[in-house]
Amino acid sequence: MRHTSEVTKWGSRCLLCLVLGILVAGSAIRGTLTAQAVGQTGGTKAAVRSWRLRLQLDSGEVRIAVSDELATLAVTAPSGSFQLAFDDSDPLAQWALAAAILPVPALEPRPGGGTPRQFRFQSARLVQPGDTATRSTDTEFSLTRVSADTADAYMLSGTNGAWTFAFPLSRARADDLFAALEGVQMPGVARFDPPQRGRTPAEDTPDVSGAYVEADRLDRGAQFLNRSPRPTYPEELYDTGIKGTVRLLYVVDTTGTVRPQSIRLIGRAHPLLALSARAALLKASFRPAELGGRFVAQLVTQDFVFTAQ
User: Fold this and answer.
1) CA–CA distance, 113 with 84 (Å, rounded to integer)
2) pTM to 2 decimals?
């Protein structure tokens, strides 16, 4: 499967200039970084590289996990969790290079001259390869150059087709992200390890994003109090014949509530159906899962089925 990152530009630009710019920017990035390159030995990149890097943001985080089989980019935000996966890390590196050379916003002139009327912003988008009809997810990420100021130089945003997130990034933090996407660990970036199972639950290494237990390790799984949440069919879709299934992944914590930042839309769904399912889930109450006589957090996958009204 061929993977690409899509670059969206507002305003006409010369394609040759863009390609040359990316090459120059890539050279500049590699020539100026003095941080540790994950998977490198003696300054030479290994043939097969893997890394797991985490960037902490004001109210969320970015996780990049690359192996010889899969490359994933996951963002946790107050609105939920978002993820894209690729066969290799090339799309991540291409996205970083494209974003690094985005120009600062410029005032767009009025047709025929006169006082400029608005700023023109330019973005680099990361999406699943293929056309819109064949993609298995509507999730996409964008890096937009919003200012020449070092405090808020970029905006990292994304959507799963139903809800969104946005984080402002300083120039320094954006550089940390660009480097991490290429497997370079800057001082403000941390490594993370996958959870490891020990001989007993006490010896397990928890997930650093907030430990939870998989269903097959539990004495008793989380249970809905009263009944399963029943989402409301959106009034806007009445008489449209639209139906479908919304699959959500989420964590029920030890208080019996769903962590909003853990909710992830799996696959594709009509945006209004997905939002209705999310709203119902956030109203639900659970008896927490149990392990060894104590309450523990559990990762849950649930389907919400909507029939046409």
Assistant:
1) 43
2) 0.77
